[in-house]
Amino acid sequence: FRKKKIKEMLEKEKLDRTDISFLLTFAERYNYEKLKKFCELKEKQLNLNIQEEIGIIDEKLKENLNKIEEQIDEEKLKKEVIDEIELKEGGLEVVNDRIVKILKKYVDLREEYYQIISHWIIGTYIHKYFLTYPYLYFNAVKGSGKTRLLKLIAELSKNGKLLVHISEAVLFRTAKERTLCIDELEHIMGKDKVILRELLNAGYKQGLSVERAVRLKVGNKEKWVIESFDVYCPICIANIFGLDDVLEDRCITLILEKSNRKEITKLMENFKFDEEISQIKEKLIKMFSVDSANSEISEDKGNIIRNIYKLYNNIISNYTTTLNTLTTLSTQTTLTTLFSLTTQDTISIEEISKFINKLKESSLSGRDIELFFPLLFISLFTGRFNELLAIAEKLTQEKKKEEIAENRDIMLLKFIVEELEETNDFISIKRIAQEFKEKNEDEEWINSRWISRSLKRLGIIIEKRRISHGVEVRINFAKAREKLRFFESESQSSEEKEEKKEIDININIQQNFQQNINFEYYPYYEVVKPINITITYDGQDKPFKAEPNQIFMFSELGDNCFEIIKILQEEGYITPVIEEENE
User: Fold this and answer.
1) Of 117, 126, 375, 410, which one is least surrounded by beta carbons within 10 A?
2) In sequence order, what are the beta bridge partners of 544?
3) Model pTM score
4) What is the DSSP string of 497-515?
């Protein structure tokens, strides 16, 4: 209502003293600084107009007004008035949009990164309610703006602090109620960083505390007491040389590149004096200040989010597939009950149920869903859930593809399937190591001992024996192919899986397989979609390929192929050719 009334006033060609007084009342009551500035300008213009009408002009007033009008673009000021009101009165949707606007002003990133960072910043104000909170990791080349981005995040986040390097003592003594932005975290994999690495590995999840013995002076005596430090806090990390696999697994990784956009790179980093940043920070503090002022409300909100985690697990475990009620504290919350994250942001429990079911249907799982859950939950209130879920799935698939490309076990698996000669006989571990090394000359880690352990981890050894000159193994090549297909399909996005034109099936047929009497079979079938099948029968692989419109005989797939025909027909890859009586 206030915004509507003020907009109407701003659109008037001329404002009288009553109008200005009306606007000034709003400005002072609700602390609209831009509106105050606008009223001051209009009041001086009105006074000068009155003086001109009666023929008495105050030259000093006129000179002062001319200077103000030179400095102020009135149309721009009107827009700033509306922007200020929208931010002060709006909810998280407006705040999120403003954070994205600020990020785009100062840093040049991939488009999807802005929403991830913005939701992460909002989450720093309520991270204590979530069981886990992801680290943001910026892997960047020199000169890509990682330090600028960390400074900006620290400025916008809750109690943000920018640190260059960090020790384990600094981490556990400063983590509580802080957002830590750590720049230049190089050599984190060094032996001297073991304790720091362990703390970081555990600090993304609630429940870990560090205990240290502290010497206290009581009167003339000293005594040792055990002090406990909570290390759970939002953390941003940036470096050039990367992180170890375990720590990076706790991060949402974003890759920064050098920008050639001069309108961004030439801007000074005056974040502390940027009025828009100050307004956003002030708004976020105000929105979530109720949590510190009212511990009962804070605990209630925490319990509701904990119940959402519980409900999620129940739905995934099929204990319940529909949401009828959600118990919070001593009351029963129904589907129509509204859940408030802030005074302006409210959703129903029914919407939360839909949110959980969408997560269930998504490609996210395991650690990925654990990391993205807080940001996706916040996105329910910013109106960006579908967009953020798509971004989360995209980033997760990109990460899986990279892991497959870099994962040493998968490298070996790919070599075995594609390069190593298939045999049922024993193969020397030494020979596998030598041939694998020839394909990867620069990889110093390849040796017989590593090959032996990798084969064991992959679970593709049928039999193993020690002989006089080393160790030999029999490899299950069919299982190796199956595992490689699994890893490669895991790295595909849901869109890629939908668009994939070929069917790639590996069916193990038992010799005593009986025909399914409930399914009708025909002598001939027409191909509807391209087929690429590998049929494994009695330990032997038989490939079968066919193109659309091609007709093949049932018997071409070999004996005992009833299950394959059934699957192909049910999946829409083939259709039976039904002969008419007159044919």
Assistant:
1) 410
2) 533
3) 0.66
4) HHH--SEEEEEEE-TTPPP
